[in-house]
Amino acid sequence: xxxxxxxxxxxxxxxxxxxxxxxxxxxxxxxxxxxxxxxxxxxxxxxxxxxxxxxxxxxxxxxxxxxxxxxxxx
Length: 74
Fold this sequence. Notes:
This protein has helices at residues 27-35, 40-46, 52-73, and strands at residues 7-8, 19-20. With 74 residues, the chain is mainly alpha-helical. It has a single domain (3-68), classed as Arc Repressor Mutant, subunit A (Orthogonal Bundle), CATH 1.10.10. It is globular.
C-alpha cells in the first residue's frame, strides 16, 4: 500500500501537518517515537488505534519528502 492512502493532510487538523488516516497523530509524532528508541511493538501497544502499516507509511512519507528536498537543493 502506498503511503498516500494512509497519510492525510487537512488544513484544520493539527495545523495541516501530515496525519495518520485522518487521526490526530502526526507523521512527526510517529517519527519522534521511533527516534526516541521505541520499537514498532511499543508504539502499537501505546497507541492501539495505529497499525504496522501506519508506521511504515510514516517512514515512507519521510523518505519521500527527504528525496524531494535533495532534488530541490541540487
